[in-house]
Amino acid sequence: MFIGHFGAGLAAKKIDRRPSLGTLFLAAQWVDLLWPLFLLLGWENVKIEPGITAVTPLDFTHYPITHSLLGALLWSVLFGGVYYFFKKQPKTSLLLAGLVLSHWFLDLIVHRPDLPLVPWSSIRVGFGLWNSVIGTVIVEGLIFAGGAYLYLKATKAENTKGKVVLWSMLAFLAVVYFLNLFGSPPPNQEAIGIVGLSQWLIVAWGYWVDRNRSAVAQPGAAEIKA
Ligand SMILES: [Zn+2]
Fold first, then answer.
1. How many whole angstroms from 155 Cα to the centroid of ligand 1?
2. Of 161, 160, 149, 143, nearest in space to 209 by CA
């Protein structure tokens, strides 16, 4: 899953206006931000197997650190814990921890049974929505559009930049998603790692968006600056 995770990050702003969209993206996409790095280091592996699913040609052979349920759970606790240590905001820390963990469950919908429960187990799960292009686009598109809608409801642009930077980011994500769906398979694991690292730019883009938008007051709270 790709834009669905960003949809989760966008939606979380409706629950808590304090964290920047960049931080929400960082949490929702945390394990996929580490994954390309671990591929380049050779700690995790992926094979290119065109036709293995209708949507992606990637065969996720070995990714226990980022994509086992236990791994995701530990990252979630670590992420929320570090945030709490620096910010002392229990509610926001919990939300971010939940977002980190949400990644695994969203991946569970689309992946083949390749997600391990624990790193040392051969039990792997996945509902396999990636076997249907239409099904994937509908489900992931709805999560993304729903997230964008909630973010738009929770914030308002402070200036023209606040509109342009947001809408260009949403359009960029949608275009990259469709290019990925119909593009040719990547040549090798290294290329996947290098291209994957570029996702960090979207996190930066999220911070840029959020700096130019202010939070709409939550019910019962005074308007706060995002
Ligand atoms: Zn993932």
1. 27
2. 161
Structure-block tokens of residue 157: 């642009």
Phi, psi (5° rounding) for residue 55? Answer: -90, -50
| Secondary structure of residue 61 in the 3-state scheme | strand
Using the mean position of ligand 1's atoms as its centre, give its distance from the Cα of residue 73 in Å. Answer: 13
3-state secondary structure of 214: strand
If you measure from the C-alpha of residue 107 to the centroid of ligand 1, how many angstroms do you get, rounded to a whole number?
Answer: 6
Quote the CA–CA distance of 131 and 123 in Å, as a whole number. 20
Ligand 1 center to residue 161 CA distance, Å? 31
Residue 74, helix vs strand vs coil: helix
69 C-alpha vs ligand 1 centroid, how far in Å?
11
Question: Ligand 1 centre from 179 Cα, in Å?
Answer: 18
Q: How far does the centroid of ligand 1 lie from the alpha carbon of residue 104, in Å? A: 7
What pLDDT tens digit does each residue of the chain (226 aa) get?
Answer: 999 999 999 999 999 999 999 999 999 999 999 999 999 999 999 999 999 999 999 999 999 999 999 999 999 999 999 999 999 999 999 999 999 999 999 999 999 999 999 999 889 999 999 999 999 999 999 999 999 999 999 999 999 999 999 999 999 999 999 998 888 899 999 999 999 999 999 999 999 999 999 999 876 555 454 4
